[in-house]
Amino acid sequence: MNSSSEVRSLSGTDRGPRASADSEPEVTAGSEPEVTAGSEPEVAAGSEPEVTAGSGGEVTSDSGGEVRTVSEPEVTSDSGGEVTSDSGGEARAVSRGELGADVGLNARTAPGTDDPTDARTTPGTHNPTGARTTPGTDTPTAPQPGPRVNSRTGAALALRDAALGRPGAPVLDGVDLDVSPGEILTVVGPSGCGKSTLLRTLAGLLHPLSGEVTQDRRPLTGPGADRALIFQDDALLPWRSLRANVELPLAIKKLPRAERRTQAEAWLDRVGLAAQTRQLPHRVSGGQRQRAQLARALAGTPRAVLMDEPFGALDAQTRAGMQDLLVEVLRGTGATVVFVTHDVDEALYLGDRVALLGAGRLVAVREVPRPRDRAAHDDPARAALRRDVLTSLGS
Fold it and tell me: How far apart are CA 25 and CA 22, in angstroms?
């Protein structure tokens, strides 16, 4: 057999001398055979080309020869999926090579990961934005946005001569009440006086038996996405992580998965749960579950937040911390808040005004001096209001 026989590509096109099993073709320095798209050079028997890391797809032969061809061009994550060749040839497709973990091809992540379907991430990382990360790290190359807050004004809520309750069992009658946009109105009263009934009516879950209930001067006919209701029980879905729970109102709004994840993690970070985003509700404390519920309510950017004794089951220290947290996270949202509580001190700390319910009616609505000021607890005007509220409640 002639020792200078041809090396043929798999496509059948002649590209140069062919090497036999016992001969090694000699190629002069700098002469690299050209390989067209989809072609792979034939290598002598017994030789296995070695692909070196960072070689740009360059394949060298172990057979002892100097043959250097490009059969597997390198694909980088920044190439947008385009395959290029470093050899100066015409190769534009991967013939057989294994793509590295950095390639961003919108592939689904491995089962058990939390990465969104279309996010480009390095396997094993949890990049919430879809931005490329440095392999082996969780740090995105772009800064993380903060939680989205409501740029609109809060909802204006009103009741006019409203009778509230269930058919045949009215709880409140003749209620006239206005809640101004962006106001925090606290509601206090003895058990069974209709506090929760009032809240559920404002949420649209109960219709008034008579009279009128409005939002922004339009009749309120049912629940709406711009009103969020927070219960004493956290109401988190037990099979979903805290982050997945916070994503629910964003999914209802049909936000892209990557954006939902970013917003949910930002809100959880804002309420102090950045380290618990993947925990299931039963694996965290009651206070942490209430924080997650608050984050879920505010993530949907509601114009009104209706809170039914959300801190009632917490110990005194945790409760005070949650009150301060509520004030902090509401800042800048513009949301109107109606907050039902049994605790008079809590009502006077949080509320711009306090509404007193009792004996089947709205007894009074009073302005609160120096709301959301811990130092005002001993203020004479605050102390006088506290005594009046306790007297009205029969305490």
Answer: 10
CB 171, CB 197: distance < 8 Å: yes
Residue whose token pair is 């200078």: 4
Residue 274's contacts (CB-CB under 8 Å, 6 or more residues apart) are: 265, 268
Element housing 265 (H / E): helix 257-270
The CA-to-CA distance between both ends of the chain, in Å, stands at 112
Owner of token pair 């067209």: 36
Provide CB contacts within 8 A for 86, sequence distance 6+.
55, 56, 57, 58, 70, 73, 74
User: Which pLDDT score, from 0 to 100, does residue 110 have?
Assistant: 38
Phi then psi for residue 77, to 5 deg, are -70, -20
CA angle (298 as vertex; 295, 299 as ends), nearest 5:
80
Q: How far apart are CA 201 and CA 219, in angstroms?
A: 12
Weakest mean pLDDT among 83-97, 275-289, 369-383 = 83-97
> Cα–Cα distance between 34 and 20 in angstroms, integer?
20
Q: What is the pLDDT of residue 219?
A: 95
DSSP 322-340: HHHHHHHHHTTT--EEEEE
Distance CA 237, CA 296 (A): 11
Cβ 320 vs Cβ 354: under 8 Å: no
Q: What angle do CA 74, 100, 260 make, to 5 degrees?
A: 120
Give the residues across from 9 on adjacent strands.
41
Query: pLDDT confidence of 138, banded at 50, 70, 90?
Result: very low
**Cβ–Cβ under 8 Å, residues 191 and 359:** no
Instruction: Please give the model's pTM, rounded to 2 decimal places.
Output: 0.62
Give the separation between CA 85 and CA 19, rounded to whole angstroms. Answer: 24
| Helices vs. strands in the chain: H and E counts, helices first | 8, 13
DSSP letter at 41 equals B
Q: Which helix (H) or strand (E) holds 362?
A: strand 361-367
